[in-house]
Amino acid sequence: MGEHTVTSFDDDLGHIDQLIRDMGDLAGAMVAAATRSLLQNDTALAQRVISDDVVMDARQRELDDRAITLIAKRQPMAQDLRSVVGAIRMAADLERIGDLAKNIAKRVNAVGEGSAPRGLSHSIDTMAQMVMDQVGAVIAAYEARDAKNLVSLREDDEKIDVQYTAVFRELLTYMMEDPRNITACTHLLFCAKNLERIGDHVTNIAENAYYIVTGQQLPLNRPKLDETSVTVDSE
Amino acid sequence: MGEHTVTSFDDDLGHIDQLIRDMGDLAGAMVAAATRSLLQNDTALAQRVISDDVVMDARQRELDDRAITLIAKRQPMAQDLRSVVGAIRMAADLERIGDLAKNIAKRVNAVGEGSAPRGLSHSIDTMAQMVMDQVGAVIAAYEARDAKNLVSLREDDEKIDVQYTAVFRELLTYMMEDPRNITACTHLLFCAKNLERIGDHVTNIAENAYYIVTGQQLPLNRPKLDETSVTVDSE
User: Fold this and answer.
1) Nearest CA to A184 among B165, B233, B191, B162?
2) Are A107 and B168 in contact (CB under 8 A)?
3) Are A61 and B217 an interchain contact pair (Cβ–Cβ within 8 Å)?
4) Between chains, do B230 and A61 touch, taking CB under 8 Å as contact?
5) What's the DSSP call for residue B219?
6) Does the structure show a pLDDT above 70 at A234?
7) pLDDT in tens, B201-234
8) What percent of chain A has pLDDT over 70?
9) How far is B189 from chain A (nearest CA, A)?
10) CA separation (Å) from A51 to A26, A106, B22, B159?
11) Which domains does chain A have, with CATH numbers?
12) Where is the PhoU domain (chains A, B) (predicted)?
């Protein structure tokens, strides 16, 4: 394979990586805006998140098309092929993060104004901040091809799960105190759950990035979904 | 490309399709068992669903490995490449269906015995049945390369969303009637939500199968996530 071909492949892959970065930036911005729209009852901002999701979906399609064209055109071998397939998977997770942010934004009206007491807003905000940090960090670690950081990012997802469990309990308490809180709190519960799931998608991205960088799969014991069932059960 | 090469590629693809079928069967069985364990408070059955998920994850890894080896070895062109990449995506959705069934099973203890009144159990059961039918039907339509059926399956997801909204409302009512129901109902709410999300994954599978069969993407207006936010808002 000549030098020219190799460079062209790298150029093509560079375009795909640029799309991953763009999607990562958009995902982080959507999570931030969705959370702010929820906690400040900002319906205009919520609407923007919903529009952003259309952009996100288009980016994913563009990446998929480029990736498949690249495989067909260049017929890459092992390591290169791994990068392209990994990029397709990362894009799918980023697209899902966009969906989840959109779903938070769509609940802004249902939650309404002043439904979340200060303590609860703070807990949700803390959780959202942790999630946003993870989204930014995983894209940065992928760009830096930093395998060690990718492993620790996967482990950090546990902290989000712990915070989710705290929010879950706060919400239950608040619902039990006054049945009039139930509808709004149910929607907030799904918002918190969406943030927790965004954390799971970051974990998936870290795993795929690790696979691209090292050629090896991480062991199968990644943290999965939430553990509130177990937590509540043991109370 | 010689006859021999084509046949070998088809053999390899046949193995991958067999894994899709196996994963589809397992996914349907897991959803059925998870729902039964939930509604009959059968913790032993719930435990089996949790174990089944390990098998599901292993199947997905096997399919991924085979698919990537196939691309590297055979360097397939357009249509064939599309089939392999589509299979990777379908496997990812089936694996997520397994995760969601497992999450239902993990909530069996938290929901406990006799928490769901007869009417509610019936609504959840109806929803689960619709979801199971969809899981079975999408794999069958893929096997039959039936593009028309794949389109209508994607549209059928709306019926699941309608049933989810009904369950969501029943659960809210039940929580408001008696605060002692709140914890159990919250878990049932997530179970119903998981079923609704399994429907979304069936939609994704239908879209990927359609792409494999026809070479064309379905338009972007697929039903996404739930609409209870909007529903509640308009009440």
Assistant:
1) B233
2) no
3) yes
4) no
5) P
6) no
7) 999 999 999 999 998 888 765 545 555 654 433 2
8) 89
9) 9
10) 12, 11, 38, 25
11) 3-229 (1.20.58.220)
12) 20-108, 125-208
